[in-house]
Amino acid sequence: MAAVRALGGRVAVVATAEPLDPDMAARICRHRNERPPSWLTVEEPIELVETLRRLGDTADTVLVDCLTLWVANHLQRGVTDEAIVAHGETLAKLVGERPYSLVLVSNEVGQGVHPETAAGLRFRELLGLVNQAVAREADRVVLMVAGLPLTVKDQIPHEQAPEAP
Fold this sequence. Notes:
Number of strands: 6
Distance between the termini: 6 Å
Structural class: alpha/beta
Low-confidence stretches: none
Mean pLDDT: 91
């Protein structure tokens, strides 16, 4: 959150989580309560790109939390692999347009344990493809490891770059 605060201006958060069980409902509630009251929160599990386009006149900085759940939400609804990848490419195109400062949170799931199920392998592959598309268009990509930021890509002039979260 420090990176978003550093940018200032009007901040919006697009949350992709859905309260499908008591633990997730509690986590969503905790996240809502941790955000500054001045931040606009939009909860949108599926129509992320459309939501981001609508925020163009309302926010200077948008934080999306997170692409991991966004991809999972598509899978839970039976969306095809091709359509999920296409949604990721559409999101990447929006990132490349840079309508405002955009901070996207996602998980790196390809470096962990090899999934035992076909569904797990499918999820890992699709999230990896979406992450790659978005990272290709992003100015800056930061991988967090043990709470430490590792800059993978940085095309922002350093005097403009916010602190890593």
